[in-house]
Every structure is written in C-alpha cells, then in structure tokens.
Amino acid sequence: MKKIALFSFIAGLVALPTMASATGGLGCNIDDKNLTFVFEALFSYSDNGGLFQIRSEMESKDKRTYKTLQKLTLDGTELKQQWLGEKDIKMMIYKETEGDGVPFASVKLTIEVTQPPEEDFAYAGKYKLTIQPAPEDGGGDAFTVEGKVECSAG
Amino acid sequence: MAPFGKLLLTVPAVLVLCGASDERGKIACSVDDEHLNFTVHASFSYRGNKPLFGIEGKLDVKPPGVRIAAPSLAIKNEHLIQQWFYDTDLRLQFYVPTTDGTVSFSLMTTMNKEGGTYAGSYDLEIDPAEGLVENTYLREGKINCKMD
What gap in Å lies between CA A129 and CA A127, rounded to an integer? Predict the structure, then answer.
C-alpha cells in the first residue's frame, strides 16, 4: 500500500502540466525496527538544482534518541548533502538539538541506493542512522544502526 | 579500506563524539589536460553536516572555439548544486549560468588507499543559450583531489 501511495505521489508530480518536461519526483521509505522514514521531493532534470519541495517524516525507535529528535517533520533544511547520479542516489539528513541549556544530541541518516539494471524507477540500498545520545539518555558514544531502504525516482 | 583511510574517517567521528568545536579542513581538486584547466579549493566541517564553503575556483576551456567559459569562469559557493563528501567518496557538481549558456562540471572521486588523496573522473557539459549556433560541448577526463 505504501508503494502504491508512493508511486501515485510520483505520478501525480510528473503529471503536473507546467512541470512535466522539467521535473521528476523522488520518494524513499523505511519501516523497520530502527526507523520509520518517509521522504518525498521534486528534482529538476535541467541540472540546475537539487531536491526541492521536500516533505519528510522520520521517527527513530531507539530509546536513546533524545526526546526532541525522536519524531521529526523535516522541511529540507536538514538535508545536508545529496547526490542524484545517473544510477545512484545519496542523501544525508542531519539534525541536532537546539536552544540554551539543551544538551547536545543529534541524529544523522545517510541513504545510499542504486538502480538495478532492469529497473526504470526503483532504487534499493542501505541506510545508516547514527545517534548521538544526550548525557541524560545515557550519553557516551554515538552509535550507528543500519538497514535497507527503497526509493523510487522518475 | 586501508588503515590510514580508516584513521582519517575516525577523526570526524571523534570530534562529533566530543561535541567538539567545528573543526575545519580543506579540499582541493585540479585538472590540466587537453580539454581544460580546472582548479577548486574549499573548506569543510569535520562534523560533515554542512555543505562545503569558501569555494574558490576557475575553469578554462582550452579549445578556442568554445567561447562560453572563456577565457576563464569563476567557481564560487553558489555554483555548488550537489555534494557527496562521505566515507571514501568525494563528489561535487558545479553549475554556472552565463549570458551565453550554462556550464555543468561534475567530479566523482574515491579516496586512495593511502588516504588524503582522491582520484576519479570529471564530466563537463556546456550548453549554449537558445539562439546561439554553438553545439553542446561535452568532455570527460580524469581528476585528482586532496584533503588537508
């Protein structure tokens, strides 16, 4: 169902009459024991910009994730790096705590997917979620969990 | 990955763990072949959570018939439209609009075993503005980068 919704979203984006020749849609999904992640964005085929109109939600299921970072609605400012290549897509999303008196904590999600030769729109690969806990959540070392991710672009 | 490469990757991780101040490093890339002369250098944060900054570079296309990007095209922060600087990868894409057309320069490199240096390839695409008689100019070649 999620895949159908994703493809419907992308099809809708591509069908926008004023943008049909110049833009595509990108969507990625993760739903496993570590993370729930939904990402949707547009990109230009004309080489003059990266992803835009980004809409994304991310929920880290690890209890050591700082409370304000566990469930995030992302608007694109958290997308720190991206690469949309011919056969691969890479993204880095980073968010850290903000405000006076707030302990330092952060989450960083890196996604790297490639397009199998027989696929036109589907990409598959791995993600890494690096969590820096706050001292009150056990502090100490950052740690990384990994899993699989699927994306569609076209 | 070579041990030294792992060491280089560990440094940013340690800085993050310590909540350290935003330590900075530098990268530089260059090409000088039959098609073009390209140099760029930039600063980066070892936390790895922000785009490259302080970008300064220039591109000279050598064939005299290519008037876009001639005699020299300046590369600045605002021209970096894609970046992947993570693990052993260093990939950058610059896009420069000019009055005569657009210039796209992409470099895709991988860290060498010794660490600190990168090698890979570049793609150059120059698209003339509508109405100009020049054709799209495409070239590719090898490029090297280093990190300090």
Answer: 7
Q: Which residues of A touch B44 (CB under 8 A)?
A: none
Which residues in chain B have Cβ-Cβ distances shorter than 8 Å to A110? 86
Task: Supply the pLDDT for residue B21.
Answer: 56
pLDDT at B63 over 90: no
> Does B82 contact A110 at a Cβ distance shorter than 8 Å?
no
CA distance B111 to chain A (A): 17
B48 interfaces chain A, CB cutoff of 8 Å: yes
Q: Which residues of B touch A90 (CB under 8 A)?
A: 84, 86, 89
ipTM of the complex: 0.79
B12-54: pLDDT as tens digits? 444 444 444 568 999 999 999 999 999 999 999 887 677 899 9
**Touching check for B85 and chain A: CB below 8 Å?**
yes
Minimal Cβ distance to A48: which of B17, B81, B83 = B81
pLDDT at A86: 85
State the amino acid at position B126 in one-letter form: I
The structure tokens listed for B146 are: 């280093």
Using CA atoms, how far residue A8 sits from A3, A75, A139, B122, in Å, is 8, 21, 42, 36
pLDDT of A5 above 50: no
* pLDDT at residue B135, rounded to an integer: 81
User: How much of chain B exceeds pLDDT 90, in percent?
Assistant: 56
Does residue B87 sit in helix, strand or coil?
coil
Tell whether the torsion through CA atoms of A138, A140, A141 and A142 is positive or negative.
positive
